[in-house]
Structure formats: structure tokens, C-alpha cells
Amino acid sequence: MKIATFVALSVAAGVFATPAPQILAPTLTICAPGEITRNAQICCKWFKIGKEVQNELFNGGQCAKGARRVLQDSLVASKLITETMQLTSTHISGGGADGSIIAHSNIETTFVPNRALGPTIEALRKIAIRNSVSFGDILNFANAMGLSNCPGAPRLQFLAGKSNSSQPSPPGLIPGPGNDVNTILNRMADAGFSASDTVDLLSAHTMASQEALNLNPAAARAPFDSTPAIFDSQFFIETLLKGRFFTPGGPGFGEVTSPLPGEFRMQSDFTIARDPRTSCRWQSMMADSNLMATRFRAAAAKLSVLGFEPKALTDCSDVIPTRVSIVRAPHIPAGLTNSDVEGFCAGTLPPNFPVAAGPLQTVAPALP
Predict the structure, then answer these.
(1) Where does Ca(2+) 2 bind (predicted)?
(2) Other CB atoms within 10 Å distance of the CB of residue 251
């Protein structure tokens, strides 16, 4: 792993060889053809940065490994800083979604959940320095851009103008795949997130794959559901299906059996889906990908400004491309039935889903 050095950056706007912004209306500005924003002074430069992010991280706009890793970066980098830590700790003075995983990658990439993130973090560092933007801004922006490449994903809020001041995250601040539900919910509550918020944020696992939890090469990029290139509710369905298989060489760290060969299931997802405090919220999103996307957008917006005052930031969300719709409806994977669904929301039955035709299929690795 490459040792990264903290670089203090200015968050002043960079100077670019682009046409002067054209005022379209009192609240809209054309930065360049097809690039319209409400906050020209701060936001126009992000159209240029968006092109760099798409080309250098996302292979010209693909929903693949780059998008998954940046999404993971943005979640683990938010640090879930608590009021108690802000008041009493000299080690952590700000915290939250400050991009510290980039500034202090020599520390934070040694944490088990972050071990595969080094190349993505270094790419983000270069783009941030090149454009004189903060690490917190580039991380949230890249997350929103990456998700925009994935069918079904919501258009995330992007607020620009974070400072570049951060301290390294202590180990264990982010709940991990091997934690029990009490530990996870207590940690999230300490940072101001409810049990429902926690489930909503786990919608990100519809795009997830494992890269450091099972180091067997045959298990590389094993996804958490059967549609890792689509932001849909299959993750919520498949996590409630009866488990039968480990990934090759498994169990990996925090792994429990999944319903499909080739699919990785985290213990924490399994238990949260079945806990009485979270099971009804989980079940409510099984049949509704739009509801899932709406709730994730709200929870991600809350997470993205953790440790910052939103009113001090500038809304540049109109730089983010609009979402691409989903074609396929929620379903039970081939070879399984609705009787394989384990419902845990008291007093209710899980939805009844159409079943894909054919025999049981091995889930292919997520795109590299």
C-alpha cells in the first residue's frame, strides 16, 4: 500500500480555460453549453471536475468497481463523529465527512474494511489537488457522480465548500461486518442516526462486492446481491432468502451463508434484516426500488454533511447527472421460490414476488 502524505489544500476556485459563465436567469447560469447551475461562482468548475472523475475513476461513465469503491470510501470516511468525541477528544477536533481517508490514507487504509481502497483514494487525491478542492468535497462529489452511472440510483445531493482540515479516524469507529446489531445501532445512534436511517444507508450494499473479506481469488468481487450494477431492491430481497452457500474458500471475515453460489452475505446484513428493531423497515423496501432510492438519498445527504454546517456550504447538486430508470422489477432469483423468503416483520407477510425462470444460477463477480 502506497504511503500517502497529508497535503494542505486551498478550497479556492481553480482557474480553467472555459468560457465566462453566461447569465440565463436570476437563478440560473450557463457555465458552458449544456452546463447549467444556480450557483455559478462555486459550481461551474465542478462540471470540469466531473469529466475528470468519469474518465479517471469510472472508465468514461461505467457503473463498475470505481463507483463501488468511491461509494464505500464515502461511507467509511464519514467517521460517524459523536458530540461526546467533539467535546472531549483532543485527537478528533472536527470529524465527520471530511475526507480524512484521503488525507490520512496511510492510517485509515490499514483498517480491514478499507484495505482495497488505496488506488481509488490516490486517484481522488490527484484530482482534488489538481483542481484545488478539498478532500471532503471530492469524495462526496465522486460518490454522487459514480452512482449517477448506475441504473436506479438516486441523484445525490452535493454541497461544496468543505474545509480541508481533518484528523485521522480512530480504528473501529465505523461498524463492521462482524458486529452484532446492538453494537451497530448504538454506534449509529451515538452519531445521530436512527435504526431506520441505518437500514436506509445499507441500501448502498445493492452496489457492493467484497474485496478484502475473503482473500481467495475465486471469491474476488463477489457481490452482495445478484444485480450489483443496478441500484435496486434485490439486496433487500436476497438478504432475507434462506442461506445455503459460502463464497469459494469461505467463510470469509464476517461472512454467513447466502442463497446463491457466488454471492457474499455479511453477518451484519443478515442480522439487521431479521432484528425486530429494523426488520419492518427492511421489509418495506423489498418491493419498492423507488422508495429505497428516495430513502437512501435522504440518509446519504445527512451523512455527507456530518461534522459540517450545511448552511455554510453551497448546493451544487445540479452538476450531478439525473438518474437512469430501472427496467427489471423486483423478483426471486431463478431456482428459488417465495417460500425461501424469511419474513421477520411482526404481524406482516413479506411481499409475493415473480420468480425468474430457470435453474439456480451462480452469481457472476461484479464488474472490475
Answers:
(1) 206, 225, 227, 232
(2) 15
